[in-house]
Amino acid sequence: MNTHSLINNRPIIVVSGEGTVSTVPDRAVVELGVITENISLAVAQKKNAEAIAKVVDSLLQLGVPKENIQTFNYRIDTEYNYEDGKQIFRGYKVTHLLQVTVNKVDQTGIIIDTAVKNGVNSVSNIQFTVAHPEAHYNQALALAVKNGERKALTIASTLGVTLNKFPGKIEEISQAAVPTPYQTKMFAQAEATPIQPGELKITAAVRSEYYYF
Q1: CA-wise closest residue to 137 among 180, 181, 176
Q2: Residues of the chain with pLDDT > 90: what percent?
Q3: What are the pLDDT digits (tens) for 138-181?
Q4: What is the CATH number of the domain that holds 146?
Q5: Which of 5, 59, 77, 150 could form a disulfide with 93, with the two C-beta atoms 3.0–4.6 Å apart?
Q6: What does DSSP say about strands 169-173 and 200-211: parallel, antiparallel, or unpaired?
């Protein structure tokens, strides 16, 4: 948004500025878990609990800190078949999903493969982030301020007026680092699953008001 108007009878130029910083993710958040089905709820729960315990133990043996493994979804669903318009009870489905934070991105593939080998049958999401995004965001914020200043100077030059050196007002427009999603596929068992985190873009935006004369 670029405009010029009057505030308190003083002419101003209002601009928006954006800044983006690209960085390599250093953390992965993986959502994986075990889904079990059985006509007996007790059996389905027991099998699920045993499988999850095995998965968690395998991740701990890889060096994943216990606090980095958290349950984020546990549910029990009743399943039915439909025959001739009738609902026929089929059994129960127990879903236990874990959220695993991986502090070393290059270990993501190994962690997924290990979990799958030990009973995981659902890998629903992988997102890449940075552990400390503040520094990158501040860089993007500085670029956004400069971007807004350049826009204001361009407008002032076009109008043939002189821009006040400092803005009368700057408003930060909150933005956040958007985690990079990874499309999950069927994971190979013969070798480590290749995981490419790519780049993470962190964006900041501001709204600036400049007086001119």
Answers
A1: 176
A2: 72
A3: 999 999 999 999 999 999 999 999 999 899 999 999 765 555 55
A4: 3.30.110.170
A5: 77
A6: antiparallel
d(CA 130, CA 178): 10
User: The CATH number of the domain where 96 resides is what?
Assistant: 3.30.70.2970
Q: How far apart are CA 18 and CA 53, in angstroms?
A: 47
**pTM of the full structure:** 0.72
Strands (E) located in the chain:
3-7, 10-23, 27-38, 69-83, 86-102, 122-129, 169-173, 180-182, 200-211
Sign of dihedral through CA atoms 114, 115, 118, 124? negative
Residue 157 belongs to domain spanning: 3-24+132-211
Which residue did the predictor score with more confidence, 93 or 131? Answer: 93
| pLDDT band at residue 184 using 50, 70 and 90 as cut-offs | very low
Please check whether residues 150 and 72 belong to one and the same domain: no
